[in-house]
Specification:
238 residues; mainly alpha; 69% helix; globular
Length: 238
């Protein structure tokens, strides 16, 4: 039996032990068939491919504050996150504060499963302070994780946050800032949690094109490297 088949069986039979509390029954719900989700997913994929085609490959360096981020703690990241203007304006309700805390405590450790630097738990929240799209993305994936864990039906808050993240991401893609890849990969993880593989892999392909355009790969350093390997792990799930 292949490694992928082994993973699938473990995922089906040990869903309660899953870091995100997911199950096969909760993944393939009405969410993936919601026209708003389908249209937004298509819009995001087009944005990624259009950006990748707009210019040639670019070599990116490590963020200047890599060493500082690596030495940070989860608590200091939370405090820095809460001090920023985006946190004050976007995380303005009790429910959004709950989603933020859930991201730090439940979602980020899953994304950082093989990352000793805890990039998604420390660096990404700090960067979200200056990025509306990343702020909305981490709230969206956290809200989606809670919806799946609680088997929420009907209206989904994560869908609105997902759409807000895409709207905020559009102008950022034109800057060719490698940090936007964090937003793209977080949104890709949300899609993985919410749709059949044949659908969310379309976004995965869009991320691949953007990684190539930005010159990011497994040998990159800092945030780009961590984001790349998180993306690469998703490609192994199915």
């Amino acid at each position: 039996m292949t490694e992928i088949e082994d993973y699938t069986l473990r995922f089906e039979h040990e869903s309660e032990a899953s870091p995100l509390g997911l199950s096969t029954a909760s993944i393939y719900d009405e969410y993936s068939n919601d026209p708003r989700f389908v249209d937004s997913q298509r819009e995001l994929r087009s944005l990624l491919f259009d950006t990748a085609r707009s210019t040639g490959p670019t070599r990116v360096g490590s963020p200047e504050n890599d060493e500082e981020d690596a030495g940070s703690t989860t608590e200091s990241a939370r405090r820095a996150f809460e001090r920023t203007s985006y946190i004050k304006s976007i995380v303005s309700t009790g429910r959004r504060v709950t989603w933020l805390k859930n991201y730090i405590n439940e979602v980020a450790p899953w994304l950082d499963m093989f990352d000793t630097q805890q990039t998604f738990g420390i660096t990404v929240p700090m960067l979200a302070g200056t990025s509306a799209s990343l702020t909305y993305a981490i709230l969206a994936i956290s809200a989606r994780q809670m919806e799946l864990a609680n088997k929420t039906k009907g209206n989904h808050d994560s869908l609105q946050l997902y759409q807000e993240a895409i709207r905020s991401l559009t102008p950022q893609l034109q800057t060719r800032d490698p940090n936007v890849m964090a937003t793209c990969v977080v949104l890709c993880c949300l899609e993985m949690m919410s749709a059949a593989p044949k659908n969310w892999r379309k976004h995965l392909d869009g991320c691949a094109a953007l990684f190539d355009s930005y010159g990011i790969n497994g040998l990159s350093s800092g945030l780009p490297q961590a984001v790349f390997w998180c993306y690469a792990r998703m490609g192994k799930l199915f």
